Amino acid sequence: MSEIIKQYLGASADIFSVIGALVTGYLAFKVAVGVFRFLNAYLLSGALGLSANLRKAGLWGVVTGCTDGIGKAYAEQLAARGLNVVLLSRTLSKLTELATELEEQYKVKTLVIVADFTKLDIYDDIKSHLVSLDIAVLVNNVGTSYDHPEYFAQLNQPNFVQDLVTMNCIAAAKMTELVLPKMVDKKCGYIINVGSSSGTFHVPLLSLYSASKAFIDVFSRCLQQEYSSHGITIQCISPFFVVSKLSKMRKSNLLVPSPTALVKSALNTVGVLANTTGYWSHEIQALVMSVVPSYFVKNSLLAARARALRNKVNSAKMQ
């Protein structure tokens, strides 16, 4: 009997050794891929001039949700690279102010289109403005998120679910539908879809937002396979936190860049990476997140939810 037990234990030890080797190999592979992506995107591409010359694809860039944060930074950086810019958002005063800034600073033309992307009846008007333009780049940036992490059944805001899906998913699909055919005809063009790390690493308590950004990721990957042979580049950037009203982050640091820093970095990866976080420290965060157990994410979101609810109670008491 003792010999049988020894044989059993020996066999078990061999099995665990194999499992351990496989796990170690998998983690080593993930790290190697992450290091290669990092070097390729943030060191080699700039040094070797591998990133795309957007100006060769046309005269105009189109940016949705452009009056704040990442969208505004894309509008500024496209103008800095010599492109005229079509600005789409729902507040005319902010659009006009940004248009004036771009025209004065970068000596480019702008076109302002007022558009509420929670609506579905806006695209005929947008099409009428875009039809005559030689569009090089479309940046699908417009989007919205939760006020704070919350359970799906407790999202009690009127029209919240419909508005989020319409803005975060349908807007990107409809804008791409408007712009892509002419890019196919001329066999060049760039479509940049702004996703989120929440769409790559599933985030409970932001379930609908996370799912909407997963749509952007999958939509982009499929389009890239469909149209790369047509001379068209589709890129999805999936950043972590940046300084913006949407993220509620107010100060930049190594892990939380400004929108300008993120977009400058991300634009240098166009033509190099089809899917990227856009920023060097976000690539490191993505590598770490790929091996972090999911319950840590949920626990951190539960803590953020508790803080937000306490702040609401305290604000109500002060009023």
TrEMBL record:
Subcellular location, principal: endoplasmic reticulum
Residues annotated as transmembrane: 7-29
Location in the cell: Endoplasmic reticulum
Protein name: Very-long-chain 3-oxoacyl-CoA reductase-like
Keyword rRNA-binding: no
UniProt xrefs under Gene3D superfamilies: NAD(P)-binding Rossmann-like Domain (3.40.50.720)
Keywords: Membrane, NADP, Oxidoreductase, Transmembrane, Transmembrane helix
One term of GO molecular function: oxidoreductase activity
Recorded name of the encoding gene: LOC106073897
